[in-house]
Amino acid sequence: MSEDKPILYNDSMELISITNEEIINNIADINSSNIAIFRMNIENILVTIPIDRIEQFLGDSLSEEIIFYIEKNWEQKVIKFYEINKASAPGKPKIMKPPGVMDPVEKYGNTNEMIKNFQMMSIEKREEVLDKSIESLHEVQSKKTALDIHSIVKMVDIIANTFYTNYANLEDNLSSENIKNNLSGIFVKTGWVMKMIIEFFKNNGTAYESYSEIDRISTGSYTIDNINKGLLWFIGFSLFYNDYIDQGLVSKKIRGEFRDKYSRYYRKRMNESMTSIERIIKGGIKKIDIAKDLPVYAVGALLYDIGKIPFIGYHDSDESYDVNMVKMHVLVGYNMILKTKKYQFPIAAMAAFHHEYYGGKGSYNFTNPILSKLNQKKRTDDKAQYFITYDEKEFRDGLALAFFPCKIIEIIDVYNALIHHKKNSHFDAMKIVKKNFITQSLKVDPIIFDLFLDFKQKCGLISIQERKDIDSIIY
Q: Is 14 helix (H, G, I), strand (E, B) or coil?
């Protein structure tokens, strides 16, 4: 290894260069010890390479031109890892998880204890928790922190505290009418937290390759992990979506390919007139208003699975599939949010309708019953002229089958389940979505799926060839 001068990463970690050969010879130890490998991206910013993709980078034809970096004391960390394992169980070696960057947030995976702690807090104490989260985000902004594993850990700390604070308040609201006047502070400060997380992503610009760090979140609870990942992927994808529009790619790619690539799927659900983007999305594809709409959508992405918490024992276990138990989380979450009368419609809608799948096979089919009760008049799909609308009233009145933010969180939820619950690779997960959720039965939206696929490719999670293979799945 070269004895070049160490470089400082994130103001705390010294990195040194490491050759391809050294990585290859020590790949097993590096992976087992959860040691990060870094490289410079095209913007000359240090980014980590996901552990499960190191070998792919080494196999790249351009890898000889890439300078890789690693922690200066990585060899000592490997030795310590094996010493811990050796001492863990004499006579019968037991693999133990080495100390890692996620250790500080594992407490949030102990849901029963966290729920109890937050329920015992006063309203004022819960607001103080959010105040501290806001202070942490101000610190992140002032330091112009990069999107890396350390900032992701900080985000998990902030998101989990914000989530548990909201859950405690929503639970209190269900059991006591006296709390209604005390919801405003938590609601307003939750909105501030979302705006500041959005700003953090905006400040990191198009450093999409760093987003892969989101998938390393691990608290010990699948549900809490999913809540954190869902929110961060939602915000990241929303900003990518806007950037995609700004670059004029809607006209260059989607509009030009619409008839040949997309219309066949939409015709399965509606008639032959589905021949343009404007007939799919009312008004066409347009940017998300970052100041007005995205903070509200982000709260929805934070709380969309909140209905799982009362049944966390089932959702975090390997128990056999219980369709009634699974569907219950949608209704519970929706009712918790709706009853506050503080949270905007998109937040309740994202909780209620993230499994609707255009009413196709596997859909919960709750859209019409829920909205009919909410509107106090029958709502059907009979007068639907569009697949998606950005407008709440048009969705509630049945002019469109789906509400825009619900279709975004829907695909992120499917993605997270396939990657983290079913343990598929990114490539296999995307193939499953294309085959089972689009070609065989129209569930997720084909255009949004393609944009999400572009996003994952930009994040370095899908290769060019894998993208071609997914695109080739037509029937």
A: strand
Among 235, 213, 110, 102, residue whose Cα is nearest residue 164: 110
Nearest to 257 by CA among 451, 441, 411, 444: 451
Spatial separation of the C-alpha atoms in residues 112 and 109, rounded to whole Å: 9
* Pick from 83-92, 128-137, 269-278, 297-306: least confident: 83-92
Cα-Cα-Cα-Cα dihedral of 259, 260, 261, 266, to 10°? Answer: 50
- For the chain, the C-alpha Rg in angstroms (whole number) is 23
CA distance readout (Å), 146 to 48, 275, 397: 11, 43, 44
Looking up tokens 């890898």, which residue turns up? 63
Give the pair of three-digit tokens for residue 313.
Answer: 């024992």
How, if at all, do strands 7-9 and 13-18 pair?
antiparallel
- 137 has a pLDDT exceeding 80: yes
Q: Exposed e or buried b for every residue in 362-384, given b needs 16+ CB within 10 A?
A: eebebbeebbeebeeeebeeeeb
pLDDT value at residue 89: 46
Say what the alpha-carbon torsion angle 138, 141, 146, 148 is, to the nearest 10 degrees. Answer: 20
* Beta-sheet strands, E only, within 52-182: 68-71
d(CA 61, CA 260): 33
Per-residue model confidence (pLDDT) at position 82: 66
> Which 8-state DSSP code applies to residue 41?
-
**What CA–CA distance (Å, rounded) separates 419 from 425?**
6
Token readout for 412 is 């992120």
| Residue 410: both structure tokens together | 């829907």
Contact between 173 and 183 (Cβ < 8 Å)? yes
Task: Give CA–CA dist 130/197, Å, rounded.
Answer: 13
The type of residue at 94 is K
> Measured in whole angstroms, how far is the alpha carbon of residue 389 from the centre of its chain?
22
* Tokens found for residue 224: 């809490």
Task: State the Cα–Cα distance between residues 353 and 330, nearest whole angstrom.
Answer: 8
Per-residue pLDDT tens digits for 16-34: 988 877 887 777 678 777 7
Neighbours of 464 (CB within 10 A): 8
